[in-house]
Amino acid sequence: MFVLQELFDFCLLQSYTLPILIIKFFGNMLNFNLELKMHMITETTAHILGFLHECYLPCDTTTSEKTNTNQIIKHSAIDLDRAGVDFKEGKGRDQICVKFSTSCRFSCLRRCYSWFFQLCGKTSFEIPKLCLYDSTEPFLRNLIAFEQCSPSIPLHITSYTFLMDTLINTKKDVEVLEEAGVLENYLGASEDATHLFNTLCKEVVLGEFTFGKQWLEVEKYRKSEWPSHVASLRRDYFSSPWALISVIAALILFALAVVQTVYTIRG
């Protein structure tokens, strides 16, 4: 990389710095909110991929709680959506940073009645928007390969693709993330996006998952009693318009039966 810097320094007209030119040439291929780091390329930056990798890293990678992938229980996007998780587009200053949070207006009841907290609370899973183009897969593969060949750098891109692979199993998962603004699919069919993420991490070793803290919070929420009941209710009775109509019709018939019984007893 320093060779490019030396050649660039020979130029008489330097309207841009070398990092800015690299970004302009390669473009924002992942379409994240890319913010250039305020540093020049030095001799320690051995590869263009190294510079691009640094641009996509969060400002502080030391605070990430790493978890072994063998401890991860997979939950798809549609499963979490049915359990009450609201997927949102992350708009923070960090490039690849996910956030899982739960809030409640009735904070005083949070400790006493966890089920009430989960009923009234708002659970969100923020993930930065990713636009899927034909160039997305090879670009991610190059960044993953760079991380695999560089043991001293964090496996942040690999962890991100592993997270998306965990969330996406079918086209319904893609549709949930598209509706939430987390994905924009320009590949064509939803199956193409599913295939992309399901094949990116094949035969890739990911010893430590950098989004372990967030995912453990997801698992804790999903295992709790109320989200499990909500997920079962949505899956069994609200998975389609016809199922919803059947439930409403059954409730109406039940209400009419109760009213008729009351009038019969009083009459």
Automatic annotation (TrEMBL):
Transmembrane segments: 12-30, 242-263
Organism annotation: Escallonia rubra
UniProt cross-references to Pfam families, sorted A to Z: DUF247
Lineage of producing organism: Eukaryota, Viridiplantae, Streptophyta, Embryophyta, Tracheophyta
Keywords: Membrane, Transmembrane, Transmembrane helix
Protein name, entry field: Uncharacterized protein
InterPro entries cross-referenced by the UniProt entry: DUF247_pln
